[in-house]
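Predict structure. Chain length: 472.
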Amino acid sequence: MTDTELDQVVDERQLIDGDALLREVHDWFATYISTTTAADHELLALFAAHTHLAAETYTTPRLQVDSPVPSSGKTTCLEHLQRLCHRSVLMASVASPALLTRMLDAELRTILIDEADRSLSPDKEGIADLFAVLNSGYKRGATRPVLVPTKGGGWGVSEMPTFSPVVIAGNNPNLPEDTRSRIIRVLLLPDLDGTVEETNWELIEENAIGLHDQLARWADQVREEVRIGRPTVPAGITGRFREKWAPLKRVAAAAGGDWAAAVDRMALNDKEEYELDKEDGLIREVPAAVLLKHIYELWQRPHRSEQKFMPTENLRAELVSDHPAVWGAEGPIGKDLTAKRLGSMLAKGYKIHSKRETRDGPRGYLRSDFERAWSRMGVSPRVSGPSGASGSSGADSGAAPDSPGAPDAPDSGEGQGDTPDWNALWDDEPQAAAAEPPVPQCRICDAALWAPDSKQRGTCHKCYRQSQVAAP
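Prediction complete.
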């Protein structure tokens, strides 16, 4: 072996500094991509590294490269991700869900979808099946049955994987709520001041490939550490938020440096923006979850503090009166909530059924039947013991022993699709029993401040982003 070959072997065996490598990837994105905040460059670097380690994590977030107007650098950003991510494929349209699954059946790929405002338009034929693949594929082990040819000219069914890192780019694409809940957003705006360099692939292609190869080598170096690592995420980052940020936190922990702290800050900012979007009506809650919250508010009124039973008609009428834009004729259904639809939503969503308090009395609902659902859904403080169990009946619940206890018959077709997404809405992690200290508020919009940097600034992440956009 020559000295040159020996030096090459030694170099290949040298460990790569993950912190320095991710800083290099961060600087790469900062050189060519103009984002709204500096943290977005950290996010892009972490996501690119994560694609090389996605096989070792249980979930993989969807990245949305977004902008309100064209010519903001979305396609350019995808081109950079294409060169840095693991086995990436860039497509301006997706022909069919079967195409994606067949690609992923061969190997794990990074899917980059451009022009999402057109390619993922809700009115496009077959789009529901495509979103089903994208949504299921954020969790390892998800599959889709696909027809494949067999010997003799027949057809057979093969279970093909859907798990893959995905990036969606478009001008404010109209994405379903369940897809948006899996997304981490990167907002781009036009670079009118020339703060970033022009991307000339003839000059930088080789450097990009070299950076990709370093990420692949580093991933092989820390693969086992990422596979078994379980770094903690900040308090409040639970459910779907945990599923989005935990894989990036595992990559960040393996890299060292300040990367783990950066993920914590970004996760809390993401939570903060979600709560603000929810208050602004940009997040549509599941109807059954809204119903549960509104019923809780009704039962919390002072004159009902001792009331254990509420007739169905009284409950229905007050819901319509208090929230006409939701349960009245002004709402999405176009007519007042009926007793049948109310019963259908509660029975299907929470297994809460109407019953009679006395043999000849009106049908209605027991407060005790709601307590467990209120607690588990985060509407009220958690309770334990027999009183917290749902579906209680008989003497213990105050209902007549011979009460039928059957749900109201559902409307024909009404209430379909109202069953909540329990993965998104229920969180079985233990909650702190002690009362938390008051959360500081944004000095501009009065929103609760979750992230440490927001608390230090005194403004929420959303207001901070808007100030960055408005800055000359």
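Summary: Strands lie at 62-67, 88-91, 110-113, 143-149, 155-161, 166-171, 183-187, 309-311, 355-356, 363-366.
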